[in-house]
Design a protein that fits this description.
The protein is an alpha+beta fold and 206 residues long. Helices cover 39% and strands 22% of the residues. The chain has one domain: Aminopeptidase (3-Layer(aba) Sandwich). A 7-stranded mixed sheet has the order 1-2-3-4-5-7-6, sandwiched between helices. The chain binds coenzyme A. Coenzyme A binds next to α1, β4, α6 and α7.
């Protein structure tokens, strides 16, 4: 098993993992048309972030089995640009296209919201269903934290979406739920909350 930065050759596999992530935390986006959604997610990755910058994968026996990404404090996460509406409409049909766009927009409003200054972000953690319960998420998050610590980040936040029962998992990994300010667009965002972990001061061993 190897944890390594993701690269352009991983886009198809990472697209598939991201659809598994949406299925867990925002099933409205996927609807019943998984193949169409997968096509759109892969297209948007190819257009917007073909190098999967900030992303890391776990590879086991030549298969990509987990994905996660980091956004350092000085380079916050940005929404992934989506294909044009006509493409989404043609792929999913009108009503599913509208649900997809609204779902993605609400998700991005939540997970790309401004974090308090000085906080890096870990996001898009997903393990392929056939490989869950083996400690891969723990290994991946450890690795992402080391990368952020090495780059001088002292504090990490991540978003957990309401309805996705992973607060216990992140609690085990040392994250604590914190109060996050509402803001005027709160009602538009996908419901969720923030968890935080302090990595230690620069130069301290984590
Ligand atoms: C959540 C997810 C990433 C966990 O991956 P995993 O590789 O199965 O997790 P691990 O095996 O590393 O588990 C680490 C620890 O958390 C615990 N854990 C795992 N999932 C949990 C959950 N949903 N609730 C509470 N604890 C959980 C494990 O029992 C393990 O505890 P232990 O070390 O004391 O035995 C995986 O289930 C997944 O991809 N889900 C769909 C996508 C998703 O929800 N991602 C999170 C977005 S914030």
């Amino acid at each position: 098993m190897e944890i390594r930065p993701a690269n352009v050759g991983d886009v198809d596999a990472v697209g598939d993992l991201l659809v598994h992530l949406y299925e867990a935390e925002a099933p409205n986006i996927v609807n019943s048309n998984r193949a169409g959604c997968l096509d759109l997610v892969r297209r948007s990755l190819r257009q917007a972030n073909p190098d999967l910058a900030g992303g890391y994968v776990i590879e086991a026996s030549g298969q990509i089995v987990a994905y996660g990404a980091i956004a350092p404090a000085d380079d916050p996460r940005r929404p992934i640009r989506q294909p044009g509406f006509r493409t989404i409409w043609r792929t999913l049909g009108l009503f599913a296209a509208l649900r997809y766009l609204v779902g993605i927009k609400r998700l991005m409003l939540r997970v790309c919201a401004q974090l308090p200054p000085g906080n890096a972000q870990i996001h898009s953690i997903v393990v392929h269903p056939a490989f869950r319960g083996l400690g891969l998420c723990r290994s991946l998050v450890d690795h992402l934290e080391s990368e952020l610590r090495r780059a001088g980040n002292e504090s990490i936040m991540l978003y957990v979406l309401k309805g996705n029962d992973v607060i216990g998992l992140y609690g085990k990994l040392g994250y604590r739920r914190v109060a996050a300010g509402g803001g005027p667009l709160e009602w538009l965002k996908h419901p969720g909350f923030v968890m935080h972990k302090f990595l230690g001061r620069k130069g301290e061993k984590g």
